[in-house]
Amino acid sequence: xxxxxxxxxxxxxxxxxxxxxxxxxxxxxxxxxxxxxxxxxxxxxxxxxxxxxxxxxxxxxxxxxxxxxxxxxxxxxxxxxxxxxxxxxxxxxxxxxxxxxxxxxxxxxxxxxxxxxxxxxxxxxxxxxxxxxxxxxxxxxxxxxxxxxxxxxxxxxxxxxxxxxxxxxxxxxxxxxxxxxxxxxx
Length: 186
Description:
Elements: H1 15-47, H2 51-68, H3 73-100, H4 105-121, H5 128-144, H6 151-185
């Protein structure tokens, strides 16, 4: 028989908790907007990308921003290191493969497995899933845009760096600059 869900925390938030949540979500939303704009407007001018690559880059950078934005700044830093470790492993494996060979479904599966294995061996088992997802995205995008497929790992790495940097900045702003002021106002 299934156990009933028993919340470990009350469901009703205080007004102060709601205010902090609203501010945190507003900071995150603005950070995502900034990330998307940076990648789709500024980076696209540097790399001369197709519109599809610009949009994919914007989405990928926003995902990185959301991924690192956490409850505390320490959790945010940990998530940023995790995201960059997983992305770096995926970047290396996909770049080496795509410089030498075109996309193939067996390569997708092999590289997902190798990226997870590499992070397990490096003692970062929690990052294996993120590396697998990143590898899958890079390889499928390489299949969608086979011309210059080797550029995809580079582009997705750059998108991730932008997203992580903006996420770190936004978390610092929200957690270290805005929240303390909100607590003083009450």
